[in-house]
Amino acid sequence: MKSVVRYLFIAGGLxxxxxxxxxxxxxxxxxxxxxxxxxxxxxxxxxxxxxxLHTNRWxxxxxxxxxxxRGLPAREKTMTIVALWLAIGLSAALALSSWWPRAALLAIAxxxxxxxxxxxxFRPQTQVxxxxxxxxxxPSRPNV
Length: 144
Description:
The protein is an all-alpha fold.
């Protein structure tokens, strides 16, 4: 790959990560598509950044679970939907006076909510700890 294109992909990936991080705090801005775009760009330009993205402590597991089709944890889905509706509700009520931008925001909120509800809910596998054998006598066995 030509070095100019490689550096453009790395720069685009870093911008996508930055937008994804901003999207964590602004529910109108989607986080997942930007992180997926960053993964795509890093996969084609930098093994280092690609590995960093997938092992990042804040969104590495989130991104990996989403990409592998395992979905989002229920708590994250709920928090995202609540934040989305709060932000859009406040924007529609306080910042907009015309009906058509309010309707557009409502349509966006409904579409994003439907999308989030259709994503599978990730439930981490709970590890089953082996039961320790008891040294107490088994009542079903006769004493010998």
